[in-house]
Amino acid sequence: MAMTGKTRVCGVIGDPIEHTLSPIMHNAAFNALKLDYAFLAFKVKPSEVENALNGMRALNIRGLNVTMPHKSTVLNFLDRVDLSAQIVNSVNTILNKESKLFGFNTDGVGALKALRENGVEPKGRKVLLLGAGGAARAIAYAMAKESDELAVLNRTVKPAQELAKLLEKLANKKIFAGSLSPKEIQQNLQDSDILINATSVGMKPKAEESLVAPKLLRPDLAVMDIVYNPLETKLAKDAKAAGAKVVSGVEMLIYQGAASFEIWTGKSAPVEVMRQAALNHLMKV
Ligand code: ATR
Q1: Do residues 192 and 127 touch, judged by C-beta distance below 8 A?
Q2: Which of 70, 199, 210, 227 has the most ligand 1 atoms within 8 A of CB, as the residue to mutate?
C-alpha cells in the first residue's frame, strides 16, 4: 500500500535490530488488511531509550515492539504497564494512545496460543520450562496460571528460584526450580507432558546444540522450542525422531506478533499471512 499523509507508524526498537522479523510480519499483515500503517526497525542504543520513547510521543508513533536489550529498561518510561509485563519485568509491546504509553508483554499469551493452536493444551499437564530469561519469564507466568504443574530449570539457578517463588504466590501452586544439569533435566522430564526450551541454546550459529539428550524424548511428550533460527532446531529434530509432538519457534513468534498487531490496530491479525511472511524470510537466511 502506498504511504499517505495519514499513514500510522509502528516499529521495533532494539540493538542490534538488523535481524528482526517484526517489519516483515507486520507490513505483510497491514497490506493484507489494507490498513494504512507502516512498520520500521529502529536501532536504539541503551542510553537513548528514554529519548526514543519521548520521540514516540512527539511523532505520534502508534506502536512499538521492544526487543533486546530494552525489554526491562522501557518499564521506567511508560505511563501504564499491564500486570503480566509488571510481573515478568519485561515489556515487548507499547501502545501510544493520545500520548500515553501503555506497556504489554505478549510473549506469554503468544506461547500459550502457539501451543493451543497446534493442539497442545497445558491445562491438567506438567510443563518443564528451560530458561529464566526475558522470554522464559513471560512464558513461565502464562504456564503457572494455565498448567497443573511447572518446573523451571536455568543455567544460573538463582533467577529460576526467584521466578518460581514469585509465581508460586501468584498462581498458588508449587513451582520447582533447578539447574540445567543432565540429572535435573532427566528427573523433571520423566513426569512432564510439555517441554519448552526458552533458552537461546540451539540458535544459529550453534545449531548443533541441544540441552536435552535424545534418549529422554518420548512419543507422549509435546516439545516447543522458542528458537526459530534454524527453522528446525536440533531439539525439534530429536523430538520429531522420538515421535513427540513438535511446535516450532515460528509459531510463538507469529502469535506474540499477532497479539501486538491486535493491540495497535484493534483488528484480528491475519495469522496465516504473518506465518507465510516469516517462513519465506527464514527460508532464505
Ligand atoms: P530472551 O529475551 O531471549 O529470553 P535472555 O533474557 O538473555 O534472552 O535469556 C536467555 C536465556 O538463555 C537465559 O535463561 C540464559 O541462561 P542464564 O540466565 O544462565 O544466562 C539461557 N542461556 C543462554 N545461553 C545458554 C547456554 N549456553 N546454556 C544454557 N542456557 C543458556
Answers
A1: yes
A2: 199
